[in-house]
Amino acid sequence: MMPNHDILISICVPTFNRLFLLERNVNFHLEHFRRLGVSFEIVVVDDCSTDGTDAFLASHAATPELRAYKRVKNSGFLSNYAFAMRRARGRYAVFLGDDDLLIPEKVIEYVNLMEADASIGVVQAPWLLVDGRAGGGDIGPFYKIPAPVRIRKSAYVDLVEFILNDHIFPEFMIIRRDVLAQSISGTAPFIFWAFLFTGRALDKADILFMPEPFARVTAVSDDPRQQQGNSECMFQWDTYRGGLEYLASNAWRVMPGPSELRESFYSRLMRFMLIRQSVALKLHVQTKNWAEAYILYHRMAAYQDEPLSPATMETVRKLAGVTVAANEAINYADGAVVVDPMLGDDIINLLPDTMREKLTRTLPSADDPRPTAWLRLDIHFGEPVKDRDGIFDVREYIAQFI
Fold first, then answer.
1. In this structure, how many other beta carbons lie within 10 angstroms of the beta carbon of residue 227?
2. Are 244 and 163 within 8 A, CB to CB?
3. φ and ψ at 209, to 5 degrees?
4. Residue 13 phi, psi dihedral angles, 5° rounding
5. How far apart are CA 172 and CA 329, in angstroms?
6. Which whole-number Å values give the CA distances from 5 to 8, 92, 93, 154, in the listed order?
7. Three-state secondary structure string covering the chain
8. pLDDT score for 311
9. First-to-last CA distance in the chain?
10. Which end of the chain is less crowded, N or C, counting CB atoms within 10 A of the terminal residue's CB?
11. Residue 186 to residues 77, 207, 238, 379: CA-CA distances in angstroms?
12. Are the beta carbons of 239 and 267 closer than 8 angstroms?
């Protein structure tokens, strides 16, 4: 095992039940960083996987560059991310999803910049989005900047301006180990973790944003589970506001500004958030999350006219009602939910796949003792109703979505 001071870069990979992707990740980085002749380690933290990940990691017990940990309980992405990063022993550390791959030569180029200038504590860059499906390829960087941008230590005003002007997301970082120790932990309530960690790091050192990616990140995959990035865009977009507010509060702390500056920040924050909300709304519609799309539409409509066309919104409204009714029926029933023939396949096919799997058009047998959940438009569908049967009137649910 290499002494800590001999390790240049720690590649920190949290993982959970994605053995086939983790194998690719580990094998790729072992091969390519060995070829570059640099001292490195791969730190893998298994969040209680049940798919053979532990056996794969055990098979690498004699691999000197690989260090593996297994959590005692499943802790979720952020906790696992922080746990992995805080296990780093190298002078520099980089986080990587188990389905992503570094661009090794670019990582070393950026590490060399940091080695040559001790005031740089973090290098950030856009990540290259990749379609991981068969026949897919590179999509492009998540954001673009034309040239390097250096944010000096504690220059929070400059960081806020940069993020708002260029719509920057400070997620992929190469971070010096001493800065990491004072910046990254597993608790980040009300705030998007990347803004929090970047803000903490800026208190300790300069941050250099480079235009060329050092990581290839899976945006679309054959894996049926939702990508972490898409999940954050869809469900954690409100924490982006918390992140920008956190950075702005530090900006006012180190350089108190006039009220006009705060008013300008507020209006620009709202523009930033409307862009993020529009991305989230599009993703919710694409993934058939109709109730979420309905609520998000109304949050956006408080600040702008018609985030969706009237026809599209009417469809969202009706499907939100059907979805909520179906979900409550599924939670009630011990068996499948029986669907009214009046709810045609054109409607049912627009429900999420996981929901459709629990619906049926087959009537239960008369001697089935289990209560039945009836999802209906026709007020007589399911009669005669047994005492413990559940009636879920779709019209009533649709009426809730005004």
1. 17
2. yes
3. -95, 120
4. -125, 100
5. 42
6. 8, 11, 13, 28
7. CCCHHHCCEEEEEEECCCHHHHHHHHHHHHHHHHHHCCCEEEEEEECCCCCCHHHHHHHCCCCCCEEEEECCCCCCHHHHHHHHHHCCCCCEEEECCCCCEECHHHHHHHHHHHHHCCCEEEEECCCEEEECCCCCCEEEECCCCCCCEEECCCCHHHHHHHHHHHCCCCCCEEEEHHHHHCCCCCCCCCCCHHHHHHHHHHCCCEEEECCCCCEEEEEECCCCCCCHHHHHHHHCHHHHHHHHHHHHHHHHHHCCCCHHHHHHHHHHHHHHHHHHHHHHHHHHHHCCCHHHHHHHHHHHHCCCCCCCCHHHHHHHHHHHHHHHHHHHHHHHCCCCEEECCCCCHHHHCCCCHHHHCCEECCCCCCCCCCCCEEEECCCCCCCCCCCCCEEEEHHHHHHHCC
8. 96
9. 64
10. C
11. 9, 21, 19, 51
12. no
Residue 162 · residue 209 · CB < 8 Å: yes
Q: What is the C-alpha separation between 215 and 101, in angstroms, rounded?
A: 6
Low-confidence ranges of the chain (pLDDT < 70): 1-5, 222-227, 256-258
Nearest to 219 by CA among 103, 130, 283: 130
- Residue whose token pair is 């570059």: 36
Exposure string of 159-179, with b = 16+ CB inside 10 Å and e = fewer, is bbebbbeeebbbbbbbbbbeb
Q: Which two tokens stand for residue 184?
A: 């990254």
Token pair listed for 63: 């691999």
User: Residue 226: its pLDDT value, please?
Assistant: 55
Tokens of 224: 């049926």
- Site of tokens 């800590």: 4
**pLDDT, tens digit, for every residue of 218-258?**
887 766 555 677 788 999 999 999 999 999 999 998 876 66
148, 206 Cβ separation under 8 angstroms? no
Backbone angles phi, psi at 138, to 5 degrees: -70, 135
User: What is the C-alpha separation between 85 and 191, in angstroms, rounded?
Assistant: 19
What is the reported pLDDT for 1? 47
Which amino acid makes up residue 254? V
**pTM recorded for the entire structure:** 0.88
| Gap between the Cα atoms of 372 and 382, Å rounded | 9
